[in-house]
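Sat 14:20. Reprocessing the chain from the morning session after the first attempt stalled halfway. Input below, unchanged.
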Amino acid sequence: MSTNHFSAGYIFQKIEGIWYVLVVKDKRFNEPKAAGGMSEDDEDSITTLRRELRQELGVDVIEAVIVHEVNKGDHTQYFFLVTEVRGLPAIDEKRELREIKAGVPGDALDMSWVTLDEFSRRVYKGQYEAFQKAVKKMAEDRTFCMDNLKYL
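Finished this time. Tokens:
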């Protein structure tokens, strides 16, 4: 039996001691949010996350862990801490945050890196608690510390 759900993922990068999170903004919301979207067909939550981040960010999610789950009645929301990716967009050599348009027909997504501090002040209100839990998971989990994010 298929269940409707939403999956989103937080991807972090450390540059010269400052942590950044990869976010998207679309035409419906002014606030930055984690990339993600609704399930299709019989997808499980990780398959939805992989498809959505490939579409919106151009990355392949290799590993991710659920850090927050919310039952919305008609669907469940899953938020992931992405711990291994392939094809990650980066901050350029001038330390400027590179912004690109997602290559999804019909989508008007802007992708950019923002500092954790800036994101915590501007995050889409529906994702604030999930963002806090993703950061807490990185800080608490001895098997995954912030310096161990794998980029392939």
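Helices lie at 45-57, 116-122, 128-140.
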